[in-house]
Specification:
This protein has 333 residues and is an alpha/beta fold. Helices cover 33% and strands 27% of the residues. The two termini are 41 Å apart.
Length: 333
């Protein structure tokens, strides 16, 4: 027996990683001091949401941070939809990302299990980020039973298949949970959401793979697109910058759950901290607004006037004292 606070305690998390998003990190931390309660190593994290919610973007930004800390990134991209150029724009060195090619759920778990075992043997102290994109987009190797004596329709057999796949995924996640907890592995899997018809009370949104995924995940993040972000130039022309994403912690064993914040994805940039600083700076009165013009007074006393998002990027973000504005916003949030 060892003390619960001992370094040998399996429940003790010794490393955390940022998502490189101020808003998502705040949801993960839930008001606790950093670096505690960010993305934990030795645990499983589920990131769910509808299409175009930023699930893969969140994974890419986390991968870039792990690489910066000298960790290894392994991706199981069963949907074959990763945009290499986009990942490089987010800071990921794609030449240092290992891709586990798997066509079925069974292959996914077999190869992930072998990779973690090999990492434990070769470099037990090195950080590893294991990404699975996505659970809902991976088919199984199970074959539909076509028994003419049962007189079952195709849809009846397909419903049985769904139940078998859910059990298969649940058993695989259960088998990996003990291995992940004994390793310096951050295991993140993305999942699709679908809407159940006829639900009167409670949420009608459900994820694929059964309830074991919810049970074994230490953190469950739900990403939901809630609108577009537009900018207006000096001529009054509007253009779409990106989308606003509501990030909610459906489950968080490391910090208060049900925390939520709105983050913004800017095209080609991912989750934008600059946009968060721009919006939060105005709310916190760090940036004064008067009509279409805004003014930022630097710590040195210089007044920087700008107009709109493009003006903020050109005059404020490029300013030498911008990091102090960002630090003030992070501290206030």
């Amino acid at each position: 027996a060892v003390s619960l606070d001992s370094a040998d305690s399996l429940s003790k998390i010794d490393h955390w990683v940022s998502t490189r998003s101020i808003d998502i990190d705040n949801v993960l931390a839930g008001g606790r001091p950093r670096p505690c309660s960010l993305m934990p190593f030795g645990r499983q994290i589920e990131v769910s949401g509808p299409p175009d919610a930023g699930k893969t973007t969140l994974c890419a930004q986390t991968a870039a941070e792990v690489q910066q800390q000298g960790g290894l990134v392994i991706v199981t991209d069963t949907e074959e939809r990763i945009d290499h150029a986009y990942w490089r724009a987010l800071g990921v060195d794609t030449s240092r990302v290992l891709n586990l090619r798997a066509d079925t759920i069974e292959e996914v778990f077999e190869k992930q299990y072998d990779a973690i075992r090999l990492m434990q043997a070769k470099a037990p102290d090195r950080l590893m980020l294991m990404l699975w994109d996505s659970v809902g987009g991976t088919s199984s190797g199970l074959v539909l039973d076509d028994d003419p004596k049962k007189q079952e329709t195709f849809m009846e057999r397909a419903q049985k298949q769904m139940g078998r796949e859910a059990k298969l995924i649940g058993d695989g996640i259960k088998g990996l949970s003990g291995l992940v907890s004994k390793s310096r592995v951050c295991y993140i899997y993305t999942n699709h959401e679908y809407h159940k018809i006829g639900v009167t009370y409670g949420s009608n949104r459900e994820t694929y793979g059964g309830n074991k995924l919810k049970f074994y995940a230490t953190v469950r993040l739900q990403l939901t697109p809630i609108g577009m972000i537009k900018d207006e130039d000096a001529m009054g022309n509007k253009r779409e910058l990106g989308s606003r994403i509501r990030v909610r912690a459906l489950k968080n064993s490391m910090a208060p759950m049900r925390m939520q914040k709105d983050a913004v994805i800017i095209g080609g940039e991912g989750f934008s901290n600059k946009y968060t600083v721009w919006e939060a700076g105005a709310k916190l009165k760090l940036i004064a607004k008067s009509g279409g013009w805004s003014t930022w007074k630097t710590p040195a006393g210089e007044e920087i006037k700008f107009q709109g998002w493009s003006g903020f990027c050109d005059k404020v973000v490029t300013h030498a004292e911008y990091p102090e504005l960002e630090a003030a916003v992070i501290e206030a949030l």
